[in-house]
């Protein structure tokens, strides 16, 4: 059993939105970034993994245990930080910690204190009075310190300033190194993907448009530059055409094709990850 | 510990290969000495912004070739390597840099004769400055 999370043939209709035949396998010990445009269904998907939204069909497992049955012992294996917390509580940080810690046997108090110190959070302040960034930091501390083998984060860096993002990245990397752990994070930040992700899971219009290993994905896209104006028929895998450049996601075939057409390119370039992500999400 | 590794995305050499060759060069040149602890695959993947699939592959290859040894729970360390292997790596490192330079020149439509000329001009400059050996 090598998977932290699996979804097989999961579907769900909510109003006029539909998630269809979702198949997903997240390998243990890896970090997967779930990406998609606004409204692509990322949060819905994460809520379904947590069994907070019921599925209309299919199965979802966390560490080999179905989340859909009567047995809810899978819950100890996963810590989830939703994008929006269901309610804003009138508690201080200290009180929230006491309430959280007692529920989780794996609670790591020293890790919690370390995160509080790194972010510089005042635990005696009322949660409601904290800035959105500090609220997010506190929520992160509460969820990471649970030490569940599977960590699911929905937009963890959304409200964080640049130094805090750095702190979070380092924390998550260190956390990953302390055992066989897995992170799924939904994000819009290319930086998160660049620094953290091993795999990218692309969600588009309610279905999984692809799951890619980061370097493999980067090596798939190539841009060719030409010194003469382009008069070439459509290239295999062509995804972009400009005045003097072409982008393909099937470079081997494209290069054979150019050779046959007797066209020489003046330069070959690898794309930046943010360009690739944009192409994946838009095209 | 952060490793001084520079990746070139536009190189024809795959990323895992570039990392592998540069770690070998660090070991062969003595910058990483026998017994030195290497970063974990997760830390290295963060530092280089590559996936853990890539760094895992690098460490597996380096271990197979005898450059590093990994101990469960303790991490990966630089292995003791023979002088012969060190020399081989040094030669390979320098050759790789020249090959890249030659490829660049050929892409700019220089002939091999012209490349030789450029090279000997540069060498002459070095020798004039007294930096050559």
UniProtKB/TrEMBL annotation, chain A:
Q: Which Pfam families does UniProt cross-reference here? A: ABC_tran
Keywords recorded for this protein, A-Z: ATP-binding, Nucleotide-binding, Transport
The record's annotation in Gene3D superfamilies points to:
P-loop containing nucleotide triphosphate hydrolases
Superkingdom field: Bacteria
Q: Does the keyword Kinase apply?
A: no
Q: Which residues form the ABC transporter domain?
A: 2-230
Q: Which SUPFAM superfamilies match?
A: P-loop containing nucleoside triphosphate hydrolases
Cite the InterPro entries for this sequence. Answer: AAA+_ATPase (IPR003593), ABC_transporter-like_ATP-bd (IPR003439), ABC_Transporter_VariousFunc (IPR051782), P-loop_NTPase (IPR027417)
Q: What GO molecular-function term can you cite, just one?
A: ATP binding
What is this protein's record name? ABC transporter ATP-binding protein YtrB
Q: Which organism is it from?
A: Filibacter tadaridae
Gene of origin?
Answer: ytrB_3
From TrEMBL, chain B:
Which protein, by its recorded name, is this?
HTH-type transcriptional repressor YtrA
Write out the entry's keywords from A to Z.
DNA-binding, Transcription, Transcription regulation
**Which residues, by range, are in coiled-coil regions?**
none
Return the CDD domains for the record.
Answer: WHTH_GntR
The domain of life for this entry's organism is Bacteria
Q: Say yes or no: keyword Membrane present.
A: no
Extract the GO molecular function terms from the UniProt entry.
Answer: DNA binding; DNA-binding transcription factor activity
Q: Which Gene3D superfamilies does the record cross-reference, listed alphabetically?
A: Winged helix-like DNA-binding domain superfamily/Winged helix DNA-binding domain
Query: What are the boundaries of the signal sequence?
Result: none
Sequence ranges assigned to domain HTH gntR-type in this UniProt record: 13-81
Organism for this UniProt entry: Filibacter tadaridae
